[in-house]
Amino acid sequence: MRHKSHKIFAATALTAGCFLASAQTPQGEIKPGPLLHTAQSSVALVQEAQVAFPASPAQGPVYVGPLKNAPEWKQGKLPVVLFMHGSSGLGLKAIAEWQQWLASLGVASVAPNSFALANRMTYSSPIDKENYEKLHAFRASEIEIALQSLLQMPWVDTKKMVLAGTSEGAVPVARYSGKDFAGRIMFAWSCEDNYFVTAHKTAIADDQPTLNIISSADPYFSPSNSWLGNTQATGHCGAALKHNKKASIVLIPGGPHTVLTFPQAKGPVEGFLKDVFK
Questions:
Q1: Could you tell me the pTM of the whole model?
Q2: How many domains would you assign to the chain?
């Protein structure tokens, strides 16, 4: 599949056999809980965020850890990636590894802790779309809360901010309608109608630099998922971004759901950030 207005990189093509239509849809599960941040959890969302600062002669090695325990950065303003984690939260080891790698490039990052809201709803897919959409609205509110905090932090270069996310966290990244970020990165999300949304509702301007990285065999959002709920799906954001001449799509052949730290992902991310932050 090709679009003249953006680039798609892939080493293999998906086959019709990936649909596995005969497979049964698994039974998902919801653990009920609130999906509205309180004043207290809004503060904790950011204070308990996982941050990474670059190494410097004055401040020592790379710091990766909670913002509330971070050393005060005094070496001028930094480009920043605001990163929205997926449904497993900040416990996913790949997130800290990815943030440390970003710091090695001189880029700071902030990953808000959505589980700062005590006992918030959790789930295993698939569940009903109504509850998915409540969750997506909740995660979207976290972008706004975190952004307002970033704008007040003296070390943040507010002209060099990128909004990124993976899986559950990539949906609000794609839907965000504001103009505060210089670019966006969506990992492990296809920007398509499927079981996870009532509609994809991608809201990225056609002139905004955008990078979409996903496995060609993503177990949730590619056609290899027999209960995807969209027989016309391609498993990437090509259709949603077809008019965006500043968009690139990277398909990682046969990769897992989490592709943050894959070498095939790091090169495109590094090039994207260098271009956006120049």
A1: 0.92
A2: 1
